[in-house]
Amino acid sequence: MQNLLAVDLGASSGRVMRAAFNGDTLSLQEVRRFQNKPLYINNRMHWNIYSIFQEIKEGILDAVSSHGAIRSLAIDSWAVDFGLVDSNGHLLDLPRHYRDARNGKAMENVVSQVGKSRLFGRTGIQLQPFNTLYQLYAMKQENENLLEAADTLLLIPDLLNFLLTGEKYAEFSNATTTQFLNAESREWDHELLSQLQLPSRLLPTIVKPGTGAGLLKDDELLRTQLLGALEVIHTTSHDTASAVVSVPSQSENYAYISSGTWSLVGTVVPKPIINEKTAAFNFTNEGGLGNYRLLKNVMGLWLVQETQRTFQSLGEPYDIERLVHRARLASPFRFMFDPDDSRLLQPGDIPETIRQICRETGQRLPDNSGSLIRGIFESLALKYRYALDQLELITGERYDAIHIIGGGSQNQLLSQFTANATNRPVIVGPVEASAMGNVLVQLLALGEVGSTSQMSELVQRSVEQVTYVPHENGVWESAYEKFTSIIEAK
Fold first, then answer.
1. Which of 107, 223, 344, 393 has a CA-to-CA distance to 18 between 20 and 30 Å?
2. Is 157 a residue whose pLDDT tops 70?
3. d(CA 47, CA 25)
4. Structural contact between residues 457 and 464, judged by C-beta atoms closer than 8 angstroms
5. What domains are there in the chain, each with its CATH number?
6. Which residues form the Carbohydrate kinase FGGY N-terminal domain (predicted)?
C-alpha cells in the first residue's frame, strides 16, 4: 500500500486528502478540512495564503502521524489568482481574490486597448473580469511599486509549491487560464504583455503536469522524525483540470460538468478551438493533461452558498439538505433567470438580486426558501443545456451522456434536473474529482500508471457511479424555450 497526498483547494474550503493505492484500486480519505474565506482589508478582498499554507502543513503532519510514510504530494486549486515574490523569496502582498471589485474596470481598459477578437485569438481564453491578465493590469494601475519590486509571479498552487520547496515554476494547466499564454506557441505571450506595458520578466518557466516540483524543504516539517524525503509533484494544478482527469470514460468524446462553487460545462479536445463560434459563445480553451478543456463557466453552487449566507444573517441557518428537501416540494418553474448575470458575481444578498431580476422580467417572485432554491437549481440545469447546445455547435459532436463530477454531484435534485433539461443520461462521480485527478497525475509521474486509459480504468474500479435517466421531457422543453427567450432578451 502506497500513501500519497492530494491538497485540493477550493474557493470556499480546502482539503488534505490521503490516497491509498494498492496497485489495483485507489481510495481517498479526508485527513484535514479547513475553511477558505476571503480576507477583507481596506475594502479589498484577499486570500489568507499564510493561513492556507499552515493548514496544509498541519494536514501533512496529521497524515504522517496517522498513516506513516508519504510517497508524494501535489497541490491543485482554483485558477487565475497569484502572489508576487521578490528576489529574496518574500511574498510582497497577500494574493487578491478573483471576486475583488477592481477587476471589471481593468477588463474594460484592456479590451479597449487590445480588442476582444485579438485577445481571444491569441490566447483562446474567454473574457472574464477575474482573468489574471486583468488582475495584473489592475495591480499596475493601483500600485505599480509592487510590480517593480517583484521578481516572480506565481499562481496559487505554484506559490504554495514554492513555499514548500523553494522552487519557482508555472504548471501548464493553470498557466493557460491567465489569458497571457499564447495558444499556438504554448509559451508566455510577451508581445501581448508588452502592448499593455506589463512586465513579462515576472513569469517563470512553464512545466508540464507530472513534472517534479522538488523535495520538501520546509524546516518546520522536516523536523518531524516521521517525515522522510517527500517529493512534491506538479499535478494538473488547476482544480478543474484535475477533476477532468478523473472522468471515468474510455472515450474522449464526452461532455462533463465539474460541479462546485463554479460549474464548468465542456469537453476535451486535442488542441484549442479558436473560431468565431467559440468567441461568440464565450467558451474558453484551458490546458489539461495532454489535451485542452473546451468549456463554459457557469456560476454554479456559489448561488446557493451565498443564499445560505443571507439566510443565516437573517437568523435562518438552513443546511443544504433541508433546502434541497424544500426545493423538491416547491412548485416547478415559478421563475427562471440567467445564473451568469453579472450582478450575481459579487458577494451580497443573492435572494434579493434574484427577486429584482424576476421583477425586471415580469415573473412571479419566489415566495419561500424552497421555491427560491428550486428556481436556482432549475435555472442552473437550463443553463447547462444552453451551454451544451453551444458546445455541440462548436465541435459538431453529439454527446450522448454527461458526466457530473465534483462536490455538486452529490446534489441528487440538481443531477436529475440536469438529466431532464438536457434530455440525456447523467452519470455522477467521483465526488472528490479534483483530489482523485490530482493523485492520478502523481501516479503517472511515479510510473504507477502508464496512460490516461489506465487512469480511467482505475477510477472505474475505485468509484461507484450513479446514473440519472431523463424524464418529463415535454415540460422541460417548454421551460427551455422560455429560459432561452429570457436570457437572450437581455
1. 223
2. yes
3. 36
4. no
5. 2-234 (3.30.420.40), 247-429+450-490 (3.30.420.40)
6. 5-245
Q: What is the 3-state secondary structure (H, E, C) of the chain?
A: CEEEEEEEECCCEEEEEEEEECCCCEEEEEEEEEECCEEEECCEEEECHHHHHHHHHHHHHHHHHHHCCCCEEEEEECCCCEEEECCCCCECCCCECCCCCCHHHHHHHHHHHHCHHHHHHHHCCCCCCCCHHHHHHHHHHHCHHHHHHCCEEEEHHHHHHHHHHCCCCEEHHHHHHHCCECCCCCCECHHHHHHCCCCHHHCCCEECCCEEEEECCCHHHHCCCCCCCCEEEECCCEHHHHHHHCCCCCCCCCEEEEECCCEEEEEEECCCCCCHHHHHCCCEEEECCCCEEEEEEECCCHHHHHHHHHHHHCCCCCCHHHHHHHHHHCCCCCCCCCCCCHHHCCCCCHHHHHHHHHHHCCCCCCCCHHHHHHHHHHHHHHHHHHHHHHHHHHHCCCCCCEEEECHHHHCHHHHHHHHHHHCCCEEECCCCHHHHHHHHHHHHHCCCCCCHHHHHHHHHHHCCCEEECCCCHHHHHHHHHHHHHHHHCC
Spatial contact of 78 and 9, defined as CB atoms under 8 Å apart: yes
With CA atoms as reference, report the closest residue to 446 among 17, 64, 9, 4.
4
Q: Can you tell me the distance from the alpha carbon of 421 to that of 483, in angstroms, rounded to the nearest whole number?
A: 11
At position 217, the amino acid (one-letter code) is K
Average predicted confidence (pLDDT) for the chain:
95
Question: Whole-model pTM?
Answer: 0.91
Q: Are 337 and 354 in contact (CB under 8 A)?
A: yes
For 317-372, the pLDDT digits (tens) are 789 999 999 999 999 999 999 999 999 988 899 999 999 999 999 999 999 999 99
- β-strand 13-21 against 211-215: which pairing, if any? unpaired
Cell of 257: 460538468
Q: Are 449 and 457 in contact (CB under 8 A)?
A: no
Positions annotated as catalytic residues are 239
List of residues 6+ apart from 112 with CB closer than 8 A:
none
Q: Which residues contact 218 (CB under 8 A, 6 or more apart)?
A: 57, 163, 164
Q: Pull the grid cell for residue 96.
A: 487578491
Question: How far apart, in whole angstroms, are the C-alpha atoms of residue 376 and residue 414?
Answer: 9
Q: Tell me the C-alpha distance between 419 and 425, whole Å.
A: 6
State how far the Cα of 369 lies from the Cα of 376, in Å rounded to an integer: 11
CB 304 within 8 A of CB 379: no
Each residue's pLDDT tens digit, 58-94? 999 999 999 988 999 999 999 999 999 999 999 999 9
Is the distance from CB of 240 to CB of 266 less than 8 angstroms?
no
Instruction: Give the CA count within 13 Å in the CB-facing half-sphere of 196.
Output: 29
Give the HSE-up count for residue 149: Cα atoms under 13 Å, Cβ half-sphere. Answer: 15
